[in-house]
Amino acid sequence: MKKIFNSRLLQGFTAANLLALAIIGLSKYYIVEGDGTLVFSEFVILPMIMGMISAWFWRDLGLSTKSIVGNSVVNGLIAILLSFIFLKEGVICLIIVSPLIFAFVVTGAFIGRKLFMRNNQTLNVSIFAVLLVVFVVDSRSEHYYQNLVADEIIINASPSEVWNHVVAFEKIKQENKYWLFQIGMPSPMQTTVEGNYKGAGRKCIFNNGYVFDEKIVTYEPAKDLTFDIVGQPRDPEIMGHIDILRGQFLLKDNGNGTTTLTGNSWYRLYVFPTWYYDIWAKSITRNVHLRVMDHIKELSEKN
Q1: Residue 52 has pLDDT above 90, yes or no
Q2: 150 has which bridge partners?
Q3: Strands across the sheet containing 201-206
């Protein structure tokens, strides 16, 4: 009996993950069109289908609520491991996506348990068919999302002094405080510039050697430095799932010897649903801002 029990659990894990890999493979080569966008269905509908497939194999095992949750988490871990091996996703990217995967695999397992308790095969087939149709339609639909993140700090120095460290700054030596930077996500380290004029090239260098190539499009000393991102690295982590489009530093003289420095970044996401991934995008962008702006503040206030 125990052997049958373990066999059914294993069948649930295996069938769900093999189906997921097959659907992802088909979607990459035959369904999804465009620029490598990862859509809503891949992180919501597909995990739900995985949970429901597993629930079908587990339907006669009498699993408790706690066991269903535990086994669904294992199911999600297997999916994440397979994504790392076969889809070449990076570790940090998988950390970010894991809460979404776990949540919807568990949800699908509980939906499946309810469905299969009724033993209504027509209903069960219909539910799966609807989910697969939603997956295909969503995968072939156009997806576009762009956003802006803005942050500001007060610096105890004049705009002209702050400006000296905005256009380009020496290497950041402070330890990273943001937890994603601490576990390996690239963080900004230094900027260089070809010249102090509109149209000049600028580079933002990260601690792992990544370089963002920039072009200055607005150059107003002590007021406004705006630059377009004209080249950025592709990477299995965040880069490739987000494009930074433009950056900007605005300086405001507060009239009391201090300057308000505002950092703006425009970005485009290639991962959906945005209600989830934009939380991460804002957090990462904000911490890039603050690492650079805190460094500018320290350099400006030394003088």
Answers
A1: yes
A2: 264
A3: 145-155, 259-269, 242-253, 224-231, 211-220, 201-206, 188-193
Q: CA 211 to CA 64: how far, in whole Å?
A: 51
The rounded Cα 86 to chain-centroid distance in angstroms is 19
Residues 6+ apart with CB under 8 A from 120: none
CB 251 within 8 A of CB 159: yes
Ramachandran angles phi, psi of 212, nearest 5°: -100, 120
User: What single DSSP character describes residue 167?
Assistant: S
CA separation for the pair 294, 52 (Å, rounded): 48
Q: Where are the alpha helices (DSSP H) in the chain?
A: 2-26, 40-43, 45-58, 65-86, 91-118, 121-140, 159-166, 179-182, 274-302
User: What was the pLDDT predicted at 229?
Assistant: 97
Nearest to 49 by CA among 130, 94, 105, 102: 105
How far is 291 from 293, CA to CA, in rounded Å? Answer: 6
CB atoms within 10 A of CB 287: 20
The pLDDT-based confidence of 156 (bands split at 50, 70, 90) is very high
Tokens of 159: 């705009």
Instruction: Give yes or no for a cis peptide into 99 (omega within 30° of 0).
Output: no
pTM, two decimals, is 0.87
Could you give the domains of the chain? 2-140 (no CATH), 145-302 (3.30.530.20)
pLDDT classification of 114: cutoffs 50, 70, 90 = confident
Is the pLDDT at 132 greater than 70, yes or no? Answer: yes
- Matching residue, tokens 């299995």: 236
